[in-house]
Write a structure and sequence with these properties.
Blueprint lengths: L2 H4 L4 H13 L5 H13 L2 H13 L25 H14 L4 E3 L3 H10 L2 H17 L1 E8 L5 E6 L4 E5 L7 E14 L2 E12 L2 E8 L2 E4 L6 E2 L3 E3 L2 E3 L6 E5 L8 H24 L3 E8 L4 H10 L5 E11 L5 H17 L15 H7 L1 H31 L11 E3 L8 H10 L6 H6 L7 H24 L11
Antiparallel strand pairs: 1-15, 2-3, 2-12, 4-5, 5-6, 6-7, 7-8, 7-9, 10-11, 13-14
Helix pairs in contact: 4-7, 5-7, 5-12, 8-10
InterPro entries: Portal_protein_SPP1_Gp6-like, Portal_SPP1-type
Keywords: Kinase, Transferase
GO molecular function, one term: kinase activity
Amino acid sequence: MLIEDLYRRPYHEYLNDIIKNMVDGVISENEVIVQEIKEWLNSETRKNMIIGESYYRNKTDIRDKKKRDVDWKSSVKLEHGFTKKLVDQKVGYLLTKEPTIASENDSYTEILGDIFNRKLLKTIKNTGKEAINKGIAYLYVYFNEDGELSFKKFKSEQILPFWKDDEHTELDAFVRVYDEYIYMNGKKEKQTKVEFHHSTGINFFILDGGKLVADVPSGINRNYHFTINEEPYLWTRIPLIPFKYNEEEQPLIDSIKTLVDNYNNQASTNADLLADIPNIIYKLINYGGTDLAEFLADLNFYRAVKLDEDGDVDKLQADPATDATEKELERTRANIYEFGRGLDQKDKDLGNASGKAMRHKYGDLDMDCNILESEFQSSIDHLLWFVNEYLLMTGKGDYRNVPVNFIFNRDIIINESEVIADCQASVGILDDKTIRENHPWYNKEVEQRLEEQKAKEQQEIDGYQGTFGPHPKDVNGNE
């Protein structure tokens, strides 16, 4: 969170004053939106989002390195993809493996399994990448062409949120600003589209010369959020789900940008030095030729040169001092992984680390993903609210009060034997299903296979009893 955000008035208070002014006829709603858009487009928060995206794509500030004062000097621009590696590492660690959705209600579990299909899980994974790069990401709730509940990721820099509370947990409204290219009079032109999403619907505009103009092709105003069987409905919540990287909504790039820039600059400067200083410098005394070109030609062709009386040829070995630069690069690289909370795969001790040592190596990454998971769990609960409302509206059941656990399965290097031993030691302490869910080989097909196995065993028992007939009775008449 930026310092400016700490002292800025909450949006809900700000909007209350705006509404009062509107009632008094001082300012119109459209003028308010335009002013807010202008502030948003020039805000530090949005600029950092764009920087985070650029550095993820390895488009860094070293590209602005100025050409040196002499034409023959090199101007190398080396870029190192630390940001992409750290972001992908966190996403791969927490969000790549299929999550476990656990509920005591089997029908609800089956429905959620269909909703959280591979497409939605991929969207959530990409939303995680967006959140790490930009501090916060957004999923928009909508209905696709088949009338099915769907979720779409909006680019964070397109979203201007109006929060109800200081903690940024619930939205009062939001504006989406984005560019779209259309053909007008045979020419391709850019239009800035504006969508104002609020509790009573959506307004569509085009930003033209600092003013909002009704976007007729998009429908101008819509007094509903969605339709089912052509019947309009309004959500009781704004259909936009925020996914935060951390409570402060601070992107990863804030912690590592200066370090990445320093690494790129030091590496590029070192490359310039190595490129510009030749390995050998010749020292000529009373050279008998006319110019240096002749000297080099004779040396390369004849392996000899002409010298005058008392002449001599010697060479000086050019050995640029790069040790200090190499040490600085090592320190900077270590700091990038430390403050970026990642795992450096080039760590020389990584390959021989034991189980406990490996967990220590993963400590920073694990801690950062704990924070990310905590934020995402809250967002998943928000998403499930829309799912439950949709199921209720479409007559598929009321699951609003049914507990469900959404478990993120981390892609961590573990000692499977130790985990299996821990599971065996937990028998009698935990229920069998919980133990199975924590087993390294567990997946959602295990429960079905266990049921099939039990049915087969029961069938064998029944067949065994049929072969030998009924049990003999004792003296009391009991089998």
